[in-house]
Design goal:
Number of strands: 7
Radius of gyration: 15 Å
Strand content: 25-35%
Distance between the termini: 36 Å
Number of helices: 3
Length: 158
């Protein structure tokens, strides 16, 4: 059965899952090209620059994998299939970088195969997307160590 894709992105944190220490549970993807030479990054709406697709795992989603694939659709406009669990990555930001809008989080990342790139998606007007080599992505993610760690755990050609 085909996955039904939303035409609008979810917003707010009313249905957000939290861990035992009060950390926000975030699910994300590392979308690789078929030849594993490139990764798809998206523009951050808050900080500028480039990030991996990710967002909150919500209470109506059975798994973090389901949440990660929803975020990939909403933010990057990709339909994807999980090929590898990259594990949980703890919060790596310094305490002074944490805010109410960017609280402490635990990140669950998945390497995914991109099955389809849509020309229209929920956050198309808010975010650009760009395929990058490992070195380009490494440079772009240098201020986000948790995202760089997810990239490094993937099977992208380095």
């Amino acid at each position: 059965m085909a996955q039904k894709l939303a035409t609008t992105a979810r917003t707010g944190r009313d249905n957000q899952r939290y861990g035992a220490q009060g950390e926000r549970l975030v699910a994300g993807v590392v979308p690789l090209s078929n030849d594993k030479t490139k990764v798809l990054l998206i523009q951050s709406t808050r900080r500028g620059g480039w990030v991996l697709p990710k967002g909150g795992w919500e209470t109506d989603e059975g798994t973090a994998q389901e949440a990660a694939c929803r975020e990939a659709w909403e933010e990057a406009g990709i339909v994807c299939t999980v090929v590898k669990d990259l594990g949980t990555i703890p919060e790596m930001r310094a305490a002074q970088e944490l805010t109410d809008k960017a609280p402490k989080a635990a990140y669950q990342f998945y390497e995914v195969r991109v099955d389809r790139e849509a020309s229209d998606w929920p956050e198309k007007d808010k975010r650009g997307r760009q395929w990058m080599t490992y070195l380009q992505a490494k440079q772009s993610l240098q201020t986000r160590p948790e995202l760089l760690e997810a990239l490094n755990r993937s099977t992208i050609m380095k």
